[in-house]
């Protein structure tokens, strides 16, 4: 029994010795070549990672800086003018807090729910008035995933200091938006009367 264990140990050590000797038996030039190849791969991957970490270039299009300009500010509202590429006609839009979620045109007010679940039902509250009953979205509201306030509702927006919306999304979530309307009337008057927007 002792003899077989001793023989196994000798064979194991001998095998390990032959393995290590085969590793060291490789020519030094081959090891240098392999080392150089691996170094190039590491350098290449390091450069790739650095490129992926860089922020995207600001020159992703040939957009002219004059294509969009903020012409007016009042409260949290700004009026942005864009020039149509085909007709050179200006379009002015009021935006809330420098974001495009709430938008104002000459004749309507929009609150976008695109990317937030769409619109399945909406409850509106103008200023301190009681909330209106829940209503279903119009076909246009469904297609653009936005609440669109026109006609009498638009006039209420212009006359109010605050608009609260509670929207049931297509995903059956409930979203609440509270929009300060201070400055909205001045932004609307600018859009409706300023020559830069006509």
Unreliable segments of 5+ consecutive residues: 6-21, 56-65
Structural class: alpha+beta
> What level of helicity do the residues show?
25-40%
Termini distance? 104 Å
Strand order of the largest sheet: 1-2-3-4-5-7
- Secondary structure tally, helices: 5
- Radius of gyration of CA atoms, rounded to a whole number: 34 Å
The percent range for strand residues is 25-35%
**Order of SSEs:** HHEEEEEEHEHEEH
Largest sheet composition? 6 strands, antiparallel
Average pLDDT: 82
Describe this structure in words.
It is a single chain. By secondary structure, the protein is of the alpha+beta class. It is built from five helices and nine strands, in the order H-H-E-E-E-E-E-E-H-E-H-E-E-H. The protein has helices spanning 2-24, 28-53, 139-144, 151-159, 184-193, and strands at residues 68-74, 77-83, 90-96, 99-104, 109-112, 121-126, 146-149, 162-168, 174-180. A hairpin with a 2-residue loop joins strand 1 and strand 2 (77-83). It is elongated and about 90 Å long.
